[in-house]
């Protein structure tokens, strides 16, 4: 498997895990900013990975192309996790 394809696939798995953790937190605690940020960040990472994998051939995938979007989603996820843990 190509490194870029594997990288995007693993980003998607990590994002899905973060989003599901945020949904679980929303279900158990109700609406909280930390949980909302976890969901937005996690599913944002997953959506970006899926979009890249579906719209590009393996040869066209660049690991760093959507780095600003992944960085933003990761930041939201980390902030959400911190806020959920503090709460």
Give descriptors for this structure:
mainly alpha; 0% strand; membrane; transmembrane helix; elongated
Number of strands: 0
Radius of gyration from the CA trace? 14 Å
- How would a textbook summarize the main sheet? none
Relative helix content:
over 70%
Continuous helix count:
3
Q: What proportion of the residues form beta strands (DSSP E)?
A: under 5%
Q: What structural category do the secondary elements indicate?
A: mainly alpha
Terminal residue distance: 41 Å
N to C succession of SSEs: HHH
Bulk shape? elongated
Average residue pLDDT: 80
Number of domains: 1
Low-confidence regions? none
Transmembrane segments: 6-23, 30-51, 63-86
Keywords: Membrane, Transmembrane, Transmembrane helix
Task: Explain what this protein looks like in three dimensions.
This protein has helices at 3-29, 33-55, 67-86. Helix 1 (3-29) packs parallel to helix 3 (67-86). It has 87 residues and is mainly α. The N and C termini lie far apart (41 Å).
List the helices and strands and how they pair.
Layout: H1 3-29, H2 33-55, H3 67-86
Helix pairs in contact: 1-2, 1-3, 2-3
Transmembrane segments: 6-23, 30-51, 63-86
Keywords: Membrane, Transmembrane, Transmembrane helix
